[in-house]
Amino acid sequence: MLPLDVAAYTNRWRARHPGEKAFLSLGLLVLAVALPPWPGAAVCAPVALGLLLGPAGVAGRVVWRAARVPLGFVLVGAAPLLVTVGGTPWPAWNPGGLVPAAELTARAVAALLCLLLFAATTPLAELLPRLQRVGVPAAVIEIASLIYRLLFLLLESLRVVREAQALRLGFRTWRTTYRSLAGQGASVFLRAFDRARRLEQGLASRGYDGQLRVQVVSRPVSRPFVAATAALLVAVTAVVLELRSVL
């Protein structure tokens, strides 16, 4: 399993209803996007991170491993705002882009932490069956569920193929590395196609009628948690607006 999935199954909020965690994380996400980046993002990001590391009990290394790749995209996306082209010299430092780049980075980091607050505390296997109750088409849910299950099979296939190539010195030089990567992609594609065909045949032989029925564990919604979440969102909004007026 991926570290993020392990955290979703082992955190302290594992037994809570997904709607409670969605209300909290998506509420903070809306505030991080709707409120001014300063000080909105500066308040929402620490709140989301504190909830992740504190009450939810997610390890800091798991949060870092899940966030480092998206953070790289954020930094790459903000870097062009610091450069201007077309003058002399052709690429030059843009002093006016420092503030927009900082605001973009702060807002994106806050939004990322809010999404991780939900992803690291809610198993996807518990979320998908409940989406139909809020109007998501059953076909979309089933496709997402099948992709989620096949993802781990493909990752395992990729690991096995890569280990086999490494044992045969397939990554000794740049030339052999490119050849191994090409063979790796072809092998994983064929395995994915074969697994999808076998899955389709298995579903057909079991009388698949267009809907996958799974047992959903009943989890009551905690009214104190919902009330505390609403109070937290109001408090964050009040603090941001107060700091905005002072600063």
The global form is flat
Strand content: under 5%
What do the pLDDT scores average to? 83
Number of strands: 2
Span of the ends, CA to CA? 46 Å
List its traits.
mainly alpha, 72% helix, single chain, two-stranded antiparallel sheet
Topology overview:
Blueprint: H1 3-10, H2 18-34, H3 37-53, H4 60-78, E1 83-85, E2 91-93, H5 98-119, H6 124-131, H7 138-167, H8 174-205, H9 223-246
Antiparallel strand pairs: 1-2
Question: What does this entry look like structurally?
Answer:
There is one protein chain. A hairpin with a 5-residue loop joins β1 (83-85) and β2 (91-93). The chain has helices at 3-10, 18-34, 37-53, 60-78, 98-119, 124-131, 138-167, 174-205, 223-246; strands spanning 83-85, 91-93. Helices cover 72% and strands 2% of the residues. The protein starts with a helix and ends with a helix. The protein has 247 residues and is mainly alpha-helical. The chain has two domains: 3-122 and 218-246, no CATH class; 130-205, no CATH class. It has nine helices and two strands. A two-stranded antiparallel ribbon has the order 1-2.
